TrEMBL record:
GO terms for molecular function: glutathione transferase activity. It holds the Pfam family GST_N_2. Gene3D superfamilies: 1.20.1050.10, Glutaredoxin. The gene is SEPIA. It comes from the Eukaryota. InterPro entries: GLR_AS, Glutathione-S-Trfase_C-like, Glutathione-S-Trfase_C_sf, Glutathione_S-Trfase, Glutathione_S-Trfase_N, GST_Omega/HSP26, Thioredoxin-like_sf. Residues 20-98 form the GST N-terminal domain. Belongs to the GST superfamily. Omega family. SUPFAM superfamilies: GST C-terminal domain-like (SSF47616), Thioredoxin-like (SSF52833). This is Pyrimidodiazepine synthase. GO terms for cellular component: cytoplasm.
Length: 242
């Protein structure tokens, strides 16, 4: 099976799966899926991608994964869900000597997961909910301030890239779009994205560093493409081209 580069919806045929190869069911714009893709691509593990339409999920996917959530990883009869567990499975696939988890350790990885969750919740509300408030903008800013203090430099926990970085970084994508949502909530029409983001210099340096990595660039997307997806998702446009 070759990669499916459009999001399959109800009525689309179920793709054939090669059980001897990793198959990732994901959503292009989902940060939880991105962290899995980053891990696969960092370790240069070949995999097939099947994109799942989040508005109109195919019935065959719901049979495969009744929760309907992504990411889902299939390999040799194994069915793995939950992005952090998939990351750890993939990270150990080629052996502990190349494991990124061994760089940061279990406790730091758990800390990174907590950091990403603190960003994910208000970020999601600001992007997708009509009920987002200034309190959500404040919560996101507080989470970014915490991340800014945590970054040891140049990577999250020091001089070396670790699995913690791949867990956190997806939640810093679509930066300008998210920052503009923050400005909108604060009615700060005179401010710019650069002005509001300047309070997190370590985060900005970290973003510049990570965005240069080939395993980040491989499945990156532009803010305007993400904005179209957000609009389609909010309006439940299952037939939108994303």
């Amino acid at each position: 099976m070759s990669d499916v580069f459009h999001h399959l919806k109800e009525g689309d045929p179920e793709p054939s799966i090669n059980p001897e190869k990793f198959t990732l069911f994901d959503l292009q714009f989902c940060p939880f899926c991105q962290r899995v893709r980053y891990t696969l691509d960092y370790h240069e593990i070949p995999y097939d991608r099947v994109l799942v339409n989040p508005i109109s999920k195919p019935s065959w996917y719901l049979r495969l994964n009744p929760s309907g959530k992504v990411p889902l990883l299939l390999y040799k009869g194994e069915k793995l869900v939950e992005s952090d567990l998939i990351m750890q499975f993939v990270d150990q696939f080629k052996g502990s000597d190349v494991s990124l988890l061994s760089v940061c350790g279990e406790e730091s990885f758990k800390k990174a997961l907590a950091l990403s969750s603190s960003i994910a919740v208000p970020r999601y509300k600001l992007c997708y909910s009509s009920e987002a408030t200034e309190a959500d903008a404040d919560a996101l800013k507080a989470a970014l301030s915490n991340l800014n203090k945590t970054i040891k430099g140049p990577y999250l926990f020091g001089e070396k890239l670790s699995l913690a970085d791949l867990a956190v970084f997806p939640f810093l994508n679509a930066w300008d779009l998210v920052m503009n949502r923050v400005l909108k909530m604060e009615n700060a029409s005179g401010d710019s994205v650069e002005a509001v983001a300047s309070q997190w210099p370590n985060v900005l340096k970290y973003r510049r560093l990570m965005n240069q990595k080939p395993y980040i660039m491989k499945t990156a997307f532009q803010d305007d493409v993400y904005a179209k997806f957000v609009d389609a998702y909010v309006l439940k446009k299952a037939d939108a081209d994303f």
